[in-house]
Hints:
Elements: H1 8-26, H2 29-36, H3 40-46, H4 50-76, H5 80-94, H6 103-109, H7 117-137, H8 142-166, H9 170-183
Amino acid sequence: MARIVMERGDVVPLLGEVFREHGFEGASLAAITARTGLGKGSLYHFFPGGKEEMAAAVLAEIDGWFEAQVFAPLREGADAPSAIRDMLAKVDAYFRSGRRVCLVGVFALGEVRDRFSDQVEGYFAAWRDALAGALRRAGRSEADAAEQAEEAVLAIQGALTLARALHDPEVFTRTLERLGRRLLA
Length: 185
C-alpha cells in the first residue's frame, strides 16, 4: 500500500480538532498521533517546538481564516449591512451551526491562556473592532457601535458554550437570528 505523504498544512486542521476535543493540556501525544496518523518523529519534524508550536500554528490558521472571511469584509465592505449578514452566515458555517466549539475561546478559558495571550486577545479584539466599524458605517454612533459589537461577540461565544452545555445547537442558531435582527435594525 502506498504511503500518504502529508505536509505541515495538512496536519494543522487535524491538530485543531484534537485541541477542540481535549484542550491544550489534554491533547496528549497519543491523541495527536491517532488523529493525524503521524508518528512522533514526523510530528516533531513539522513542529520542532512540540505541542506549543502545534497550538500556535492552529491559532494562526484560525486567525487567518477569520481575517480573510470575517474581519476584512467587515472592515472593508462597502455595504456594511451585507458584510454583517455575511459575518453571521460564515460564523454559523464555521461553528457548524453551534456544533463546534471555538478553539480560541477554549484557549482563553484554559490554563494555557497566558502562553497564547497575544493570539487570543488579538482574535477577539479584531472581531469586536471590525464589527464596530461596520456598524458605524451602517449609521450607528461610535458608542452604540462599540457596545453592540462587544455584545455580539459575547453572544456568539456564549451561545457556543450554552449550545454545547445543553446539547442543543439550536441555541446557537436562535442567537444568530436574534443578533441579525438587532444588528441590522
